[in-house]
């Protein structure tokens, strides 16, 4: 059995020699890999946003202006069609406007 | 050649000669020089601390590289409030604790998988250096770092408290507990 102090001395004894140049090159490679990964993640994010955006644009009439068909129908009507008792009622109702 | 530190700074070729862009590139270039000089100046100290914390060659090299990857990431945020040495010590201590936590988790997974015979593993050969790690292996990563800093690196307790971002009382009690555990372990490991 060795004492605690001897054990600490053994740990202190001196680190093994290191291959600093090799490790420096490995660090460089890892940093480059991380930067590539980050760039790929950013690109994937942009692509995902575009895909979701396109899907939403074509799926929801509100976003694609699909409700324009409804509005154009309203605006295309002749005044005599839109001016009528129902419209008069709507505009004259104090609770509506 | 280490890639430039990423400052989130982007300039297209058409803007390169604008003053702001040039300044940005100069800062990036200086940061790269800084990383090289930090590495050149402090690699020995980092290796020393790493070698006193983990004992197999593979662990030492992995942890050493992890420390400098973290340094590269943190360099743009270094404001010079403490010396580079202290800042680096802090990064090394925190990286080492995290490294050991990850390694232990990984080993537990490997152990479970090999007990289920999903994978085959070979025990790494025991060398005189890895045998030194056995008593320390009973400590958790934080206890281990505090023991190494206090008793091997001979840092003062208030320095350790600052380096590890822990209250002084916690450092004292953790160190006391860790020494107790180590002394008990040393009785068991008489082949050291």
Topology at a glance:
The complex is a heterodimer of chains A (97) and B (192).
Chain A: H1 4-12, H2 20-59, H3 61-64, H4 67-76, H5 79-82, H6 85-92
Chain B: H1 19-53, H2 57-74, H3 84-115, H4 128-136, H5 141-152, H6 157-164, H7 168-188
Describe the protein in words.
The complex is a heterodimer of chains A (97) and B (192). Chain A is mostly helical. In chain A, 77% of the residues lie in helices and 0% in strands. Chain A has six helices and no strands. The longest helix of chain A is centred in the middle third of the chain and has 40 residues, at 20-59. With 192 residues, chain B is mainly alpha-helical. Chain B is built from seven helices and no strands. The radius of gyration of chain B is 21 Å and the shape is globular. The mean pLDDT of chain B is 82. Chain A binds chain B through residues 1-4, 7-8, 10-12, 15-16, 18-20, 23-24, 26-28, 30-32, 34-35, 38, and chain B through 1-3, 6, 39, 43, 47-48, 50-52, 57, 60-61, 64-65, 68-69, 72, 129, 132, 135, 148, 151-152, 179, 182-183, 186-187, 189-190, 192.
SS element count, helices of chain B:
7
How much helix is in the residues of chain A? over 70%
Determine the mean pLDDT of chain A.
Answer: 79
**Terminus-to-terminus distance of chain B:** 42 Å
Overall geometric form of chain A: rod-shaped
Q: Strand count, sense and closure of the main sheet of chain A?
A: none
Beta-strand percent range of chain B: under 5%
- Low-confidence runs of at least 5 consecutive residues of chain A: none
Show the largest interface: A-B, 25 and 33 residues
The whole-angstrom Rg of chain A is: 37 Å
Give the helix/strand class of chain B: mainly alpha
Number of helices of chain A: 6
């Amino acid at each position: 059995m060795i004492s605690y102090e001897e054990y600490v001395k053994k740990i202190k004894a001196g680190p093994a020699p290191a291959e600093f140049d090799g490790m420096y090159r490995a660090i460089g490679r890892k940093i480059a890999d991380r930067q590539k990964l980050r760039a790929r993640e950013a690109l994937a994010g942009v692509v995902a946003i575009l895909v979701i955006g396109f899907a939403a644009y074509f799926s929801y009439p509100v976003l694609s202006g699909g409700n324009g068909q409804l509005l154009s129908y309203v605006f295309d009507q002749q005044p005599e069609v839109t001016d009528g008792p129902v419209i008069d009622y709507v505009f004259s109702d104090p609770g509506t406007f | 050649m280490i890639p430039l530190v990423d400052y989130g700074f982007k300039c297209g070729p058409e803007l390169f000669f604008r003053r702001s862009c040039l300044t940005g590139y100069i800062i990036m270039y200086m940061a790269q020089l800084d990383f090289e000089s930090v590495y050149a100046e402090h690699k020995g100290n980092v290796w020393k601390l790493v070698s006193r914390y983990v004992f197999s060659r593979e662990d030492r090299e992995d942890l050493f590289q992890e420390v400098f990857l973290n340094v590269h990431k943190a360099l743009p945020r270094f404001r010079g409030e403490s010396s580079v040495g202290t800042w680096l010590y802090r990064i090394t201590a925190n990286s080492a604790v995290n490294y050991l936590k990850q390694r232990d988790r990984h080993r537990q997974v490997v152990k479970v998988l090999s007990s289920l015979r999903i994978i085959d593993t070979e025990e790494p050969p025991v060398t005189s250096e890895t045998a030194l790690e056995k008593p320390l292996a009973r400590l958790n990563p934080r206890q281990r770092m505090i023991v190494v800093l206090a008793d091997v690196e001979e840092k003062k307790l208030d320095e350790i408290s600052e380096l590890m971002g822990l209250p002084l009382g916690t450092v004292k009690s953790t160190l006391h507990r860790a020494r107790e555990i180590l002394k008990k372990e040393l009785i068991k490991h008489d082949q050291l």
